[in-house]
Amino acid sequence: MKKNLVIAIDGYSSCGKSTLAKALAKKLGFIYIDSGAMYRAVTLYFLRNNINISDDNKVIDALQHIELNFHSRDYQSHITLNGEEVSDEIRLMPVSEKVSEVSAHKIVRHEMVKQQQRMGKSKNIVMDGRDIGTTVFPEAPVKFFMTADPKIRAERRFKELESKGNNETTLEEVFENLAHRDYADTTRKESPLVRAEDAVILDNTNLTQEEQLAFALERAEPFLS
């Protein structure tokens, strides 16, 4: 198998990008990098430390005090923020409500892109996010752009929150949050969410996890040897 092969997965919030990316990485023996978790962890740090996103100097200083790392446990990818496991906390609504604003910041994006590119220099990786196939790894040979019906996406996200014990958020609030994030992600100036011309569209509205994995593996197969 080739070394330094990147599989890039982009798409809208709650389309199952991380689910597919994890399954692909496990099946192929690749390393899974959740770029969205990186932006969420930065957002969590900003919230905890009352960082004003409009103050560039504060943002630059804050980024110098943020160390992000990924590790695997039970076949799942976990992220630590300055040594603290934050994989669950970054998925809660306070972070979800602010992550689009933080991730749209030019300074934040440039720093995260540099980190992501370093991760893909010498390893076989699967990375998901909003601009992986367009900005981070535009030369990636395998690219997917994921989408799904907005109502289905909201229901999936709502069930995920419920499974983690968050019973305070309503389905309507989740739907509105996703709509807001879609608008923010597709209209921001820095690396907006857009399908790369050579990305394969994967609409999983009516697909099972097994079916979407089979779809992705079939299209990745020619590049694996």
TrEMBL record:
Q: Which reaction does it catalyse?
A: CMP + ATP = CDP + ADP; dCMP + ATP = dCDP + ADP
Residues engaged in binding ATP = G11, Y12, S13, S14, C15, G16, K17, S18, T19
Q: Does the keyword Kinase apply?
A: yes
Q: Which InterPro entries match?
A: Cytidylate_kin, Cytidylate_kinase_dom, P-loop_NTPase
Keyword annotations:
ATP-binding, Cytoplasm, Kinase, Nucleotide-binding, Transferase
Q: Where in the cell is it found?
A: Cytoplasm
Classification via CDD domains: CMPK (cd02020)
Pfam families per the UniProt record, alphabetical: Cytidylate_kin
Molecular-function GO term, any one: kinase activity
- NCBIfam families found in the cross-reference section: cmk
The UniProt entry, under HAMAP family, shows: Cytidyl_kinase_type1
Protein name in UniProt: Cytidylate kinase
The beginning of the lineage is: Bacteria, Pseudomonadati, Bacteroidota, Sphingobacteriia, Sphingobacteriales
